[in-house]
Design a protein that fits this description.
Elements: H1 19-23, H2 34-38, E1 40-47, H3 53-63, H4 75-79, E2 87-96, E3 99-108, H5 118-122, E4 130-139, H6 148-151, E5 159-160, E6 163-165, E7 170-173, H7 185-189, E8 193-203, E9 209-217, H8 220-230, E10 243-247, E11 250-255, E12 258-264, H9 271-284, E13 310-312, H10 315-318, E14 337-345, E15 348-356, H11 360-374, E16 378-384, E17 387-392, E18 397-400, E19 406-411, H12 416-433, H13 444-448, E20 457-459
Parallel strand pairs: 19-20
Antiparallel strand pairs: 1-4, 2-3, 5-6, 6-8, 7-8, 8-9, 9-12, 10-11, 11-12, 13-14, 14-15, 15-19, 16-17, 17-18
């Protein structure tokens, strides 16, 4: 009858405390090191969905409602002491009376739970909607998160004019991004994402709300790549961060290793208010403006459709350039870099891309993969010098050449002459760099041939006639300091 028990409603087991084992005279409570304790599970939390506020709110919405009251509660997740959180959220989004609602329903990563009882201690539901169950000899998986997970949440200014940060930001490590944007997470995770911090600002007077995200990436190139990915042909906004774009009350900002995404909350703010918050958040970031990925400088300015830059690494995002489905025909991976944009002529639009590989062998594998893909639907045509030509039954042409670490690609071009001009301009840019890749030695192939030995050129949906043409790129209207790429 005197066996000690943990009663979480009275007090929880502190993750960094081992005193009970140290003072127990009979060792009925085993003395453990702090590391041993972190691998031990006293029990496992269990949610009572008939009492948990978000789960009850979701059930009420599912059964039909006339009016909506916010049913979100995150107390258990906020206090969970596991660095990467044993309590996480499954986010449901719906509409009621034309208004979007979001319900963050908690669930348990059982392998990580140590049964400390902290969630049960603080649960606001009478009697608690989460309780622990015993698991004798239970184990707990230790999954420590990098320390930066805390600091990113501190990047939000607490007060911006009459706007205040409404609550502590939610932090999502990259591995858990699907809890926030289920289904779309892989396309962002491929950009070396580190963390996402989600918060909201509320106006002190009219209670308008602006939802604000800060996304942190491993480097500025990837943050810029995500900005370009989500803002194709979106009008730019001057004076916010390094680059900013906005549609109505949604705003995107890139600055250094950070990407900001602001959108309306339950009571929508104006575009001016959203952009003012975005500007203040960008100014508060502890980084300076950075240059866009230098690979973009190889994309010619002439005939390029404004605001269509793309920068990516892996196949999941390459489908926006040339649809390859789940087949990785270009052998792309996290170490490859791809710069792309759309181009326009009188006969239509086409994509042009530059693919940079770590080694010549990988570039050769990418070219071989593409050629194998062409053999399924195209017939080889007489080559034009170093250029190989393939033709589909519908008249579409694919033209390519390859060498060393680079692949250059143009797709869906109805105008062969325009595509050849783009290709020639890109080759000239490679020649002006004076090297094939990152070496300082002159590129002999670039000096002797219009097709650099560090490239593969692909041109799709072209007329049967092929006319060689080369022009120097037009002078861009707006150049980026440092290496002269137009960001239009």
């Amino acid at each position: 009858m005197w066996t000690p028990q943990l009663v979480p409603r009275l007090g929880y087991c502190d993750r960094n405390c081992t005193l009970c084992g140290q003072v127990c005279p009979s060792q009925a409570i085993k003395a453990l090191t702090l590391d041993e304790k972190k691998h031990l599970a006293l029990g496992k939390a269990r949610f009572n969905r008939n009492a948990c506020i978000p789960w009850v709110g979701w059930a009420r919405f599912r059964d039909g409602l006339d009016e909506w009251e916010d049913a979100n509660c995150a107390v258990c997740e906020e206090v969970c002491p596991i660095p990467t959180k044993a309590i996480r959220f499954n986010t449901f989004k719906g509409k009621l009376n034309g208004e979007e609602i979001e319900i963050r329903r908690p669930y348990l990563e059982e392998d990580l739970c140590t049964g400390c009882g902290f969630c049960e201690k603080v649960c606001p539901v009478e009697g608690s909607a989460v309780k622990g169950g015993p698991v004798p000899g239970g184990k707990a998986k230790v999954e420590d998160a990098p320390q930066a997970a805390t600091s990113i949440g501190e990047l939000f200014p607490k007060v911006i004019g009459e706007w205040r940060l409404s609550k502590k930001p939610f932090i999502y490590p990259a591995a858990n991004l699907d809890e926030y944007i289920n289904g779309a997470a892989p396309s962002y995770q491929s950009y070396n994402l580190k963390f996402v911090a989600v918060a909201a600002y509320v106006h002190e007077g009219n209670k308008k709300e602006i939802r604000a995200d800060i996304w942190e990436f491993a480097d500025s190139d990837d943050a810029c790549g995500v900005f370009f990915k989500d803002t194709i042909e979106v009008p730019r906004v001057k004076g916010i961060g390094t680059l900013a774009a906005a549609i109505e009350t949604t705003c995107w900002v890139w600055k250094g290793e950070y990407w900001l995404w602001l959108q309306p909350g339950r009571r929508s703010a104006s575009a001016e208010e959203t952009q003012a918050i975005a500007g203040a958040m960008a100014d508060a970031l502890p980084v300076k403006d950075a240059e866009p990925p230098k690979l973009l400088s190889l994309l010619p300015e002439e005939s390029r459709v404004p605001l269509t830059f793309m920068f990516l690494h892996e196949p999941i995002n390459f489908n926006e350039v040339y649809y390859i489905g789940e087949e990785n025909i270009f052998v792309l991976n996290e170490k490859t870099n791809v710069a792309a944009a759309r181009y326009r002529s009188d006969k239509g639009e086409y994509h042009f891309a530059v693919i940079e590989y770590p080694t010549p062998a990988e570039a050769a594998a990418g070219a071989s993969g593409f050629e194998a893909h062409l053999k399924k639907s195209c017939k080889p045509q007489p080559p034009a010098g170093p250029i190989n030509v393939w033709k589909q039954d519908d008249g579409a042409h694919f033209i390519f050449a390859r060498s060393r670490r680079y692949l250059l690609a143009a797709f869906s071009a109805a105008d062969l002459e325009a595509a050849r001009k783009t290709l020639a301009a890109a080759m000239k840019k490679l020649g002006e760099r004076g090297s094939c890749g990152r070496t300082s030695q002159p590129c002999a192939i670039a000096q002797s041939s219009p097709i650099c030995a560090a490239t593969i050129i692909l041109i799709a949906r072209l007329p049967a006639s092929v006319t060689a043409a080369a022009t120097s790129p037009a002078t861009p209207r707006h150049r980026w300091p440092g290496w002269g790429v137009s960001l239009r």
